[in-house]
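(2Fe-2S)-binding protein: structure, please.
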Amino acid sequence: MIKYTGYNEVSLNINGMCHVVLIKPNETLLNVLREKIGYTGAKGGCENGDCGACTILLDKLPMKSCMLLAIECIGKEITTIEGLESTEIQKAFVDFNGFQCGYCTSGFLLNAFAMLDTNPETSDSDMHIWLNSNLCRCTGYEGIEMAVKSAQKKILGKK
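Here you go.
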């Protein structure tokens, strides 16, 4: 087992690129992404894992980056919203206005992307369970749900 103390130079695989950063063992992935690497798509909201604004994918699974230590992510694949360029879910959020102020949008996009990547035939009830891990205080969720269902249809149509 490796013990980390003080500052440590580590390599993080983010959006398919290696980033070498100097971190302390107690730094969250959210802080490292935003403050040290410059990926600002993940947002700090509640800072305790409830709101989902900080959602990223860790080895393709949605995780709250405010609850992860950056040191725990060494050797893992990290995907941020910046890594989801030109995906069906991203296009659908634009087409169906799946956002209002935009603060929560990246978390919803990453969560929905992971859901559809894991199971494109996700049922409506399972979709609600997946999307319940993110909070939006603006839209009332209608645009978000329509966007996810639209992306799902397009993904299923390509199979």
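Notes: The longest helix spans residues 142-158.
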